[in-house]
Here is the input.
Amino acid sequence: MDYFLFAIGLVLLVYSGKYLVQSGVSVARHFNIPTLIIGITIIAFGTSAPELIVSVKAALTGNPEIAFGNVVGSNISNIGLVLAITALLIPIPVGKTSWRVDWPVMMIASILLYAFTLNNVLGFWESFILFVFLIAYLFYSVKSSSPDVVSEKNDDNNKPQYKLWISFVIVVAASIGLAYGADLLVSSAVNIATKLGVSKRVISITIVAFGTSLPELTASIIAALKKQTDISIGNIIGSNIFNIMAVLGITGMIHPIEIDHIAFSFDIIWMMFVSVLLFLFIFPFKTVYLTRVEGVLLFLSYILYLTAVIGGYDFESLGNTFHFTLPWH
Here is the structure.
């Protein structure tokens, strides 16, 4: 039965991701908003819905390891797996906004998360700060969107695919489909893994994280195949920002998230490592594309991470290495 539910969840994710991209682009066309901005707002939020639902449910049911590991593991998967596979399909153009604004916000959010969890709990006020930071970021992104962010010709190819109200209905329906699809997939995957005796931490940062990253994967691949590559890079960075500031922010405000910082130190450090690696690839030294070669390197970093996790690396020792106490703790 679990395998059947896994398959149903996967189908829901694929089709929901497809229509979320289409409707998101349609909304952008109606308001003459660059698709990059849509990627870091509507689509990023829609594809982060599974992480939010899984994390809130996990925190409220006494499984904080899954709530926290889901977000950290998903962010690693988004860059090392989703963005890597998308780049392997087609080189991804990188706009100035991605490395001048979006990436720094993602990195600041990661550093704040690390600092806030040094006392082994993500409380209400720390979560509130993350959420307020998100609101400020979104406000800035929308206000700063202008024709020079992403140049788009006003031709037939850029006309809305659906009427405005239909576009919004599809966005909502697709987001719900993503949420339910991820819930089915993750629940069945966790049941299967639990029967095999896998720990909650490993489940959360591998199976659960991969399952909740499938919306980003399907949305980004479909966007790449449709040549809407601005959505691919915007969706991933935007989703990572949403995962930390919205998913953990909202979850932490609803219920404090107690986590073992030492156990998760390796994962947080690796999340920041792949973020820095991405920056080195998207910073316009010579090109303004995330190339296939760089996609391969990102994918190898993900494989290396999984090998370390599944191989039973001594995370507690590494965690103690990076563990220190801030003044307010």
